Amino acid sequence: MFDKLFYQEKGLFLQSLHPATVLVYLNVLFVLSLLYQNPLYLLGLFFFLVLLIIEVDGMEAWSGFLKAGVSLMLIIMIINPLVIRAGATIIWHGPELPILGKLDISMEALYYGAVSSIRLLVIISIFCLYNLMINPDKVLNLFSKVAGKSVLMIALSTRMLPTMVRDLKRIKEVQQFRGVDFDEGSLWARVKKYSCLYNVLLLSSLEDSLEIAESMQARAFGSGKRSVYSRNILRPRDIICMVASFLALFAAIWGLQYGYGQYTFYPQADFLIKDRITLTTLSVVIFYLSAPIILSEGWKNCRFLKSKI
Amino acid sequence: MGTNWGFYTTMIGIFSVALLMFSMEKKGELTARQVSITAVLAALCAAGRAVTGVGLLFLQPTMFLVEITGFVYGVQIGFFVGVMTPLISNFFMGQGSWTPFQMLCWGMLGVSGAVVKALFPGAGNKTLTTLCFFWGYLYGAIMDVWQWSVFMRPLTFKTYFLILAAGFSFDSLRAIGNLLFCAALGYQTLKILQYFHKKMDIQYLEDL
Amino acid sequence: MPLFKVENLTYYYPETEKAALRGINLEIEEGEFILVAGGSGSGKSSLARVLAGLIPDFYGGRIGGRVFFKGKDIRTMDRRKLAMEVGMVFQDPEKQMVQSYVEAEIAFGLENLGLDTEEMSRRIAEVISFMNLTSIREMFTANLSGGQQQKLALAAVLAMQPHVLILDEPTSQLDPVSAEEILNLVKRLNEEMGFTVIMIEQRLERCFHLADRVLFIERGEIVCDGKAQEKACEAIKMGLPFVPPVARFFADLNFPSVPITVKEGRKLLRSCLRGKKPTSKIQFGLCRNNVHVEDLREQNSVVSLKNVWFTYPGGQEVLKDASLDIKEGEFVAILGENGAGKSTLLKHMIGMLKPGRGKVHVLGKDISKNGYKEIRRLTAYLSQNPNDYLFQDTVEDELLFTLKNFALTDISVVDEMLEKFHLSRYRKTNPRDLSSGERQRVALASVLVTRPRLIILDEPTRGVDFRLKADLGKFLQKEAEKGSTVIVVTHDVEFAAEFAAKVAMMFSGRIVSDGEKHEVLGKSIFYSPQIGKMCMGICEGVLTFAEAQEIIFPLIEDKRTITLLRTGENA
Fold first, then answer.
1. Does pLDDT of C496 surpass 50?
2. Which of A6, B18, C196, C565 has its CA at 20 to 30 Å from residue B119's CA atom?
3. Chain pair B-C, CB pairs under 8 angstroms
C-alpha cells in the first residue's frame, strides 16, 4: 500500500482524454448532482455513473469508495427525519425530547433523507471516477502556468510519500530490534514510542531535503523565470467531449429554469414525473453526457473511428 | 429550497483554496531550500496521516507538525505544508469532494501556527498543544459545514449541531490525539525544526 | 586557455574551524576525464561543488582564492549560464528526483532555464532515446529502481546540454550491473561526445582505467595529480589506499609502471610467472579463513532456513524454495543482483516476514512461528541506512536507549563499545553532527551493546570509503572469531571476497550457490573480485590481495625475473 498512486494507467480511452476535458466533464456532472433535486434525475445520474465506472474498469475501486460513504449515509438518513418538522404525513408521533422538541417522524423527511443519500452516492461516484480517469500529474501540469511553485512542491511531495512510507517501515523494524514494542503499553506509552520513530524520520527527511535542494540548485532552479513543459495533447475527442459537456450543462440549466429537475419535498412530496418534458429533459442531458462513453465504445470496436479521434 | 447552498459552499471551498494558494505563492519567491523543505514536511505529514493514522485509530498524528511548521517557518511554508498534506495523502487514498475543505482546514492550521508566533513570539509547547487540541474540534466543525449544506434540509443551526453531535466522539478522539502527540513530540519537533531553520538561513559569505 | 583554473582556493563551511579545502591549485583542460579519489571528508566533494558553482552560492561559508571557468571568474558568472555549461550528478539517486513522472523530471532543468516548449520537446526526445529510457518514460519516479533513478538523474542533467559533467560518487548506491551501465555511459559521453568529465569514485576497480588523469585528495589538499598509470605507484608509496587491487598488487612488487586493468594485469602476470604454475590446491590450506571454517564444521547451526517460500500480498513470488544453513562463528556474505530476493531473505532471518511455506530457525528458536521478539535480544540488525538509528541528543544516549529497552543494567558496556568504535571523544556529541562513517559506527555500537550472538548487516558498504570498509570488515572478522555469527547482505564482491569466510549467492528467489568463498567466487566470472579475475586460469583459487601476496609473491620475487623483465622493457 502507498507505493503507488490511486490512479493507475490502464491505457483506456477515457484515460487518454486531455485533463482539462475530464475536469470540465466531471465538474459538469458534479454541478448537476448538486443542482438537481428531483430523485428521478439523481437516480438517472447514478445509473449513468455506474456505466461510466464500468467503462473505466473501476468496480473494485468504487466498492471501496462506497464503503467509506456508508457511515455518512446513515447519519444523513437518521438526522434528517429527526429534525425536519416540515413534512405533512406523520408516520410516528414520538416523545418530547429536551433539545429537539417533539419527535414526529414524517414520511417526507424519510424520503428526503433517502434522496440525499442518493446524492451522496452520486458525488462519491464522481470522485471515484475522477481518481480513475485523471493522472494527477497531468492535472497539476495544467496549473503549472498559474502556480508553478505550488505544483512543483506538490509533485515533489507526491514523489516522496512512498519513500517516506518505506523509510517509516524500515525505521520501525530497526526500533523493534532495539527492543521497542509498538503494540504494548497504554495509549500514552504507545504515543511515546511512536514519537521516537517519528523523530528519526523527521531528522532524516530534513537532512535529505537539503540534498534535494542542492540538486535543484545545480539544475538552475531559481535562476530566473521558469517556463512550463506541457505533455498534454488535445485531440478531436477532447473537443467533442468538451462541447457535449457544455451542451449538457446548458440543457440542464434551461430545464431548471422551467422547473425540470427541481423538486419540492415539503409539506408534501411533488410528483416524480410531472409531464413528458420531465423525461425528455433528462434524456437530452444524459445523451449529451454519454458522449465519452459512445466514443469509448466506438474507439474499442470501430477501427475507422479510432483513427479519426 | 430555492437557493442551493450545497452548490455554493462547495464552490466557496474550491475557490478559496485556489485563491489562497495562488496568493501565498505570489507572496514571496521561494528558494530551492524552501521548496524542498516544504515538500519534505508535507510528504512526512501525509505519510504520517496515511500510515500511523490507520494504526492509531485515525488520530491524525501529524496535525501538530503542521502547526509547529507554521510557528517556526512562518505563514507561507506553514500554509503550504498544511494545504498539501491532505492533498498528497489523498493521491494515494483517493480524492473526494472532501479534499478542498480538508485542504482549507489544514492550511489554516499552518497559518494559525504562524499567527501564534506573531502574537506571542515566546510561546512554548504548552500554547501550541492547547491550540492543537482545539483544532481537533475546529477541524470537525469546519468539515461538517460542507456535509451539512449539501445533505441537510432545512439549513438551521439545529441540524448543524446534530451533525456536529454525530461526529462528536470522533472529533474528541482527534482532539485528544492531537493533545497527546503535541505534548509528547512538540518540544522535540520544535527543537529540530528550529535547528534546521538556522541551517537554512545561514548564508553569510566572507572572503578570506 | 584551460577550462577550469583554480587558484589558491581555500574554503570553510559555515560554523566550522577546519578548512574543507586548502590552497588548491588546479587546471582542467577541455575533454579530460578526471577521477578524484580520497577518503570521506577529504574535501573531494567540496571541490566538485566549487566547480559546479554550488560553493559558496548554496552553502555560504568563507572562501578564499579564485576559480575561473573559461577565463571568467565563476562567482561573477550568471547562474543560468553556468548551469548550461556545467552539470552535476549526485550520490544518492533518491535525493535528486524532483518530479513525480520521468518525462517531467527530465524537463525540470529545462523549465528552470526558461526554454520554449519546442526546444524542450526536442531535447527531451533526444535524451530519452540516447539513454534508452523510452520504456520508463511514463513511469512514477518513486517506483523506479535505484539504477533507473540514477540513469534518470543523469538524463535530466544531460538534457540541459552541458559541456562539463561533474559526478559525485554516482555509483556508490547502486548494484554492480547498474553501476557498470552508468560508468559506460559516462565513458561514451567523454569519448564520443567530448564531454569534460570530473568524477569522484570510491570503488576504483570499476573506473580507474577510464580516467585520463587522477587527483588524490587528502585533508583538503591535492596530494597527487597526474596520469592514472603513473600515479598509482606514487600513491601507494605515499600510503594512500585509493588504488585498484590489480595496480596495488604490481606496485608492491616494485614494478616501474603498473597495469590498471585486469587485462593488462593478466598479461603481465603471465609473463612474470613464465609457465611456473603455482600449486594452488595445496596452498589452499594456508588461507586462514579456510582453516577456520573447517574447524567449525561441527558447530551448531545458528540460522537455518528450510525450503522457504514467500509471496508478497501483491502476488510477487520472491522466495522459491530457499534453503540456507549458517553455523555458529561463520562470517557469511549473501550476494546477488537486484530483485534476487536478498532483502526478503534477510527479513525472514530477522523474523520480520513469515514464510508462506517452510521453516526458519534462528538461534534455536522457530521464528517462522513466533516472529522477531524471540531473538532480538541476541541479534543485532543494521539496516541499509545508519541514519535510521540516530535520534537521541548524544551518542551515549543512543547506546543507553537500546540497553534500557532490554532492561539491561550493565552500563560499563557503553564505555567498552565507545572505546571499541573509537567514539569516546564523541560521547556527548549529537550523532547527527557526525560524518557518515562515524554515524555508521554509532549505529553499529547501538545494536551491539546487547552483546548479540548474531550480527546481521544489510548493505553496510554502501557509500563507505575504502579505509572505513576495511575497518568494518576487520571488525566483523574479529567478532566472528570470537564466536558471533555474522551475516552480510551486499552487492560488494570485493568486500565479500576480502572479509567473509562463506558466500551464498542468490538468483531469482533461490540460493544457487553456497559454500566456502573460494568455491563460490573462484568459479564465478562476473561475481569475482578484481584479483580473482586477474588470477583466474593462471593461479586458481586466489581471491584476495593477501592470498595473492602469499602465493604469487614468492614465485615472482625472484630478483632475476624482475630484472629480466625490466631490462626487457628497457630494450
1. yes
2. B18
3. 25
Q: Is residue A2 part of a domain?
A: no
**Fold observed for domain B9-197:** Arp2/3 complex 21 kDa subunit ARPC3 (1.10.1760)
Instruction: Say yes or no: C26 and C68 in one domain.
Output: yes
Residues 6+ apart with CB under 8 A from C386: C436, C439, C440, C442, C443, C444
Based on the fold, state whether residues A182 and A276 are members of the same structural domain: no
* Residue at which a domain ends, from A183, A218, A253: A218
Nearest to A225 among C52, C114, C124 (CB): C114
Yes or no, beta carbons of B208 and C62 under 8 Å apart: yes
Residues in chain B with CB shorter than 8 Å from the CB of A128 are 94
Question: Which among A163, A196, A226 has the least Cβ separation from residue C112?
Answer: A226
Q: Rounded to the nearest 10 degrees, how much is the dihedral formed by the CA atoms of A165, A169, A170, A176?
A: 160
Contacts of C115 in chain A (CB under 8 A): 227
Answer for the pair B61, B12: CB distance below 8 angstroms, yes or no: no
Could you tell me how many residues make up chain C? 571
**Do B159 and A83 lie within an 8 Å CB cutoff?**
yes
User: Residues of B with CB below 8 A from A202's CB?
Assistant: 44, 65, 189, 192
Asked if residue A129 lies in contact with residue A25, where contact means CB atoms within 8 angstroms, the answer is no
Q: What is the 3 state secondary structure string of C472-485?
A: HHHHHHHHHHCCCE
Q: Look at phi and psi of residue C297 and say left if phi exceeds 0, alpha if psi is from -120 to 50, else beta.
A: alpha
A287 assigned to some structural domain: yes
Counted domains in chain A = 2
Q: Please give, rounded to a whole number of angstroms, the shortest distance from the CA of B171 to a CA of chain A.
A: 15
- Cell 422547473 appears where? A259
B205: contact with C, CB 8 A cutoff: yes
Residue C281 within a domain: no
Residues on chain C touching A198 (C-beta within 8 angstroms): none
Q: Which residues of B touch A195 (CB under 8 A)?
A: 181, 184-185, 188
Q: How far is A23 from chain B (nearest CA, A)?
A: 13
Could you read off the pLDDT tens digit of each residue along chain A, which spans 309 residues?
677 778 888 888 899 899 999 999 999 999 999 888 889 999 999 999 999 999 998 888 899 888 878 887 888 888 888 777 777 788 888 777 776 677 778 888 888 888 888 988 998 999 899 989 988 888 888 888 888 889 999 999 999 998 888 888 899 989 988 888 888 888 788 888 888 888 899 999 999 999 999 999 999 998 888 899 987 888 899 999 999 999 999 999 999 888 888 888 877 888 777 788 888 999 999 999 999 999 998 888 888 887 877
Q: Minimal Cα distance from B191: which residue of C? A: C393
Verify that A264 and A157 share a domain, yes or no.
no
> What are the chain C neighbours of A200 within 8 Å (beta carbons)?
387-391
A158 part of a folded domain:
yes
- CB under 8 A, 24+ apart: contacts of B158-161: B158/A83, B158/A99, B158/A100, B159/A79, B159/A83
Using the Cβ of B203 and the Cβ atoms of chain C, whether some distance falls under 8 Å is answered with yes
> Please, what is the end-to-end C-alpha distance for chain C in angstroms?
38
Residue A225 placed within a domain: no
Q: Search chain C and give the residue with CA nearest A149.
A: C112
C359 and C268 inside one domain: no
Residues C432 and C560 in one domain: no
Across the interface, whether the CB atoms of B203 and C60 are under 8 A apart is answered yes
Instruction: Name the residue among C204, C203, C185 with its Cα closest to residue C195.
Output: C185
What residues make up the domain containing A270? Answer: 19-135+231-308
Count of domains observed in chain C = 3
Q: Which of A82, A146, A216 shows the shortest C-beta gap to B32?
A: A216
Domain around C448: 288-528
* Cβ <8 Å between A213 and B181: no
Across A22-38, b (16+ Cβ under 10 Å) vs e yields bbbbbebbbbbbbbbbb
C94 part of contact set with chain A, CB < 8 Å: yes
